[in-house]
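Hi L., both proteins are below.
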Amino acid sequence: MAAFTQAVARISGHAPVPKVVLTEAGYLILLSLSNGPAHGYRIMQVINDIFRSDLRMGPGTLYRTLQRLAADGLIEEVEDKGEEGPDPERRRAYRLTAPGLEAAADEVRRLDGLARLGKAQLKAAR
């Protein structure tokens, strides 16, 4: 495993171990918040309908992951000013924090390194 870690570091030019370990759901939530605050349902719409990743985000995964990201300081709850409705105070909105933006950028670099490694290994195998 150490050889793999060193190869990722060499190819990507960055440390392969992120400061915060993100799940796929956590990573996609951080990306969805990079354009500004959003409430949970909107985050789920962005991930499922706009990003169209292989992950289909359901409410259970969404809210468990939002809680974990908030506890880790990567996102924070904010007042939702965008929606009026019968019970607007029940809506929670979330925004990306500076550490959350950094964690997302670290994950992009890590994934880029893994993709480069995979391409190099597959090219060598041919």
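That was the first. Here is the second:
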Amino acid sequence: MTLVRILSALGGLVLLALIVWAMATAGQSLTEAIAWLVSEPWGVVSLFDLYLGFFLIAVLIWVLEPNKAIALAFILPLPILGNVWAAVWVAWRLAQVVRGRVSAG
């Protein structure tokens, strides 16, 4: 389980680095990139896939996180912070979830 938590954290860090790289080298704003993405059918599919994933991890966080304030702190930023933020929750809580001992403190 520790390996999965480490890989989740590393995956989140790699994704964050890729986001920074894309912002620095893309030569277009995020709005322009989204406009380009939604102009293509596979771009629409990719965005739907992304937001479906956000919804599914949000459901899991809500169901598995006993402290609803913490759950909301992870769910509400998901559409903006994305899977970098989801990886933080997984790395932090996965072992406790698997053992069935997620606690409010």
